Amino acid sequence: MVDYNKEVEQAQESGAETFKPETGSYKIEILDEPIETEFIENEGKQDEKRIPQWKIPIKVDNINKSWFVSKGKTLSSVQKQLALIGKNKNGLKGETINLLVKYDGQRNEYTIIEAVELQKKAKWVE
Known about the structure:
It is built from three helices and seven strands. By secondary structure, it is α+β, with helices and mostly antiparallel strands.
């Protein structure tokens, strides 16, 4: 059973909304390094599934938000793009990135502009 009071308290304590990008472009300031966490799907049920993710404190449009990014399986995933930037910048804290979100008719495609050249140099282009 979900403890709704606890969930609301945790959300209020974090002081941040969740960032859920839709089609468009976003300038994102990364406020701190990612925290490894996991999303639990169907918690407490037989088909419970744990999905590794990063929780990243960010600022978008002068509003502090939390961005939950699932650990990627492909080199073009948002998480792997962020990892490449972090590797080349010795971390993500203090970085400003430009995120482009396009919808191809079936799913969203996420491109971090700052990762594009790094992907080419690393031969990460799929």
